[in-house]
Amino acid sequence: STYTEIFFLFQQHQQTLLNQLREVTGTTDVQLLQQALQVSNGDLAEAVAYLTEKNAKVPQQDETTYYQTSQVASDRYISVGSQADTNVIDLTGDDKDDLQRAIALSLEESSRAFRETGITDEEQAISRFLEASIAENKASLKRTHTEVWSDSPNPHDRKRIDNCPVGLKNVGNTCWFSAVIQSLFNLLEFQRLVLHYSPPARVQELPRNQKEHRNLPFMQELRNLFSLMVGSKRKYVDPSRAVEILKDAFKSSESQQQDVSEFTHKLLDWLEDAFQMKAEEDREGEKPKNPMVELFYGRFLAVGVLEGKKFENTETFGQYPLQVNGFKDLHECLEAAMVEGEIESLHSAENSARSGQEHWFTELPPVLTFELSRFEFNQALGRPEKIHNKLEFPYMLYMDRYMDRNREVTRIKREEIRRLKEHLTVLQQRLERYLSYGSGPKRFPLADVLQYAMEFASSKPVCTSPVEDIDSSAPPGCAASQQLPPPRQQDSVAPLESMSPATGAQQQRLAIHKPFTQSRLPPDLPMHPAPRHITEEELRVLEGCLHRWRSEVENDTRDLQGSISRIHRTIELMYSDKSMMQVPYRLHAVLVHEGQANAGHYWAYIYDPHQRCWMKYNDISVTKSSWEELVRDSFGGYRNASAYCLMYINDKKPFLIEEEFDKETGQILSGLDKLPPDLKHYVKEDNELFDKEMQEWDALQARKAQQEKLALAAAAAAAAASSPLTMQVFLQHDPEYMEQPSPTNDSKHMQEDTERAISKAVAEQEERSPEGLLNAAIKLEYARLLRFAQEDTPLDNDYRIQHIIVYFIQNQAPKKILERTLLTQFADRNLAFDERCKSIMSVARAKLDLIKPEEVNMDEYEIWHQDYRNFRETTILMTIGLELFQKTNYVESLMYLIYAYQYNKELLTKGLYRGHDEDLLGHYRRECLLKLNEQAAAMFEAGEEPEVTTGLGIMNELVVPCIPLLLVQEVERDLLAVEDMRNRWCSYLGQEMEANLQEKLTDFLPKLLDCSTEIKSFHDPPKIPSYSALELFERFSRIMSAMGRVPSEGR
Length: 1051
Prior knowledge:
globular; 16 strands; isopeptide bond; 52% helix
């Protein structure tokens, strides 16, 4: 059947992939190969990477370290699921460099007590990260204008629209701060706690220790920041003061990208300390309740056996760390983290020497945060690496199976799943024998083998050898030693007949079958090999057996596949009964990292329950998103972007995201009404400053406009004094390309068209009055231009460049605009080369004078002509940019192509025919950036100081400022181009190079990897030269003939 054929084709394709994977990796374990294909969704490259990583996994350390979490810990922030510690090595010796020392510090668990200052080793590690961010911000003040993040000078561009969420400005490598703070701010219960926090009343009397000196000012700045995010009129606000306080709390000089998770971890610790001081004051004599602890911290029970001795400890956790490597989804990560080592002895009465432990949650926090470990240290390369593996996670996560109260039920189900997986493995192995049949290196589905045998047996018998007909038909005069070797079936040659001179020419015209170059078979060759001799009885018996065997094999295969599917389904539904769906957690936020281990960019996806959609918080940019976009950027395995932190909230505790209501009116509080009096005053002051800034800007623009009007009036007065005729032309506001002072350039070209129309009208019309001839000439000219506008012309023959009327017709300009524009063409004073044209010109000018203001909207008329001027400018920029690109002058070409693309995009917002092909411009803009990136990288690789400086200058001044332009529209090919450019520079990480080159690379990479779509200031638009319509048309045609087709692009 058709279904069966499709199924076997699919199985054959799968087998081909398995064989290729086996050859590339050398792995012979079929189950492992199938797992790799399943994890990679059939992508061979990802499957190879998966197997390579799996084979290169570092051995686990000894049990003493592995089960260190079983010991009673005094630090809340223990390393849960100690797989995270398996790769820890000592790199603190003098013979190791600073990078390795920092990595060792960030990986090892700090369980030492607070020093007198209250600063732990973790806090010192965080300080390195924070100080680097502040240093980056301060250093930006010393950079050239091409490298500095700049606000738009127009405050109206920075004005918040309605109640859109407020973004956070990246003040120098602080995208990590924005992602974390936005995720917490959008927890409305957390937001309320921060906004309504007040420091202890006796704080001035207390001895200000290091903690208080750090926490209380930070809390105040966080309140200020949150209040601006609630009620500001700005599209985005500046978090510098909060970041400065974090920096001032620590003193260090190093940083590591992976310390961001520790930053979140310690940020909650600082908030907890601040709330603890307040709680102790409010509830003297009672055990104080800390809202931060109640919101973010939970408890789990660690039960197990260590060297034959059973233990049971209750431990507290904040962020719960999970390993990513080797797992396909969040539940697999959790299962691995909850069960460690050999756990058989936990359930038996025998006193075994085996060791193992289980974790069971006794109390889950309302906000459950998972830290995904996507960074690991590569011992072979001596540097940290990011894990890009795909990891799926659900929107709704049910935690019942991990709760202590369900311990026995879960153990039973885990045992059932283990038994089912064992059975599944046996069935998959049996199925594999059917789908990969044979004893040689190449294997095929057994059903196909039987089908092929049946087809062979059923073929019409042949009586001769497949070699005999070729040998016997060798051409005359051919020596025996020159005879062909026995050919393969596909490559057999058709018999050659002796040719007479009369038929020689005809034979030469016939297609000659060429073995190895043509797949067509000679017409007289059998389609398949066939048996020499087979009787009907033999065929009947053989066909009966083959049919029966094939049917049995197909039935067995279907049964195995059905059983495998049922087992998969049973495992999937193992925890789907209602009793195991009582602890629902809904995904609130996903924090994403893009880049490598040492550098990258952070942003967050946060669910808005009121709009019922996902929002993307990317520094100053806050946009609506979708689950599909979140999956693409967060699951991993697609680009260098993946989630590193998941924030779930208890779906049965709606207070976490509920808005606050006014107690008197019952209305939802919004904007400034949500703020306490001190913060309301603070925000009002800031909004007044912003209003004042907008008013000053408007006043400045009004003064500029008034000055321009005065300048125009002065020019008009001077023109009137020198020439009344010039004044008349000025008052008519006719476009410069419609009327010129002398018959040159555009005017000459248009003049010739006009005179041609007049001559044709004179020849065709009986009425010879000037007005009749004018009407006839205008109709003829319009008909000619209409034909041009309606033609389906190639890109290199764009009539819009030659005549404005064609542009107007294609873009459906109003009739009155067309009529006035044509009248202006015939009113050109340069037409007065004879009396007849002069009289027609005079009539046209008189008609222009008679047009009343209400008949033609002059503002609309000017807008249409300004649009055409913009179209011409865009065409000039595009033409020059492509000409320079063709000459490989990419540095000069870039700005022309950048501005041509931007101007063209603005034109296309008004209509399809307002501009040029956006894909074409986008392609060459992208290619120009890739070429410059390649040149700059080659200069950096050269290692010579002048070339390195030049290469980094190209990147900083040209490429990096343009990257936001490629990111803002999220066009797939633009995103891939940016990724390729970043990957090229990230590939230098870990390579041996001189110290000065390493320093330059470290300084440069954060700029390249910053994914903010805020546009940086770069070079002013190129000066646009003046071309006549004919000259521009010819140059545009030449360059479009050479480069007008966009080639197919790959990665």
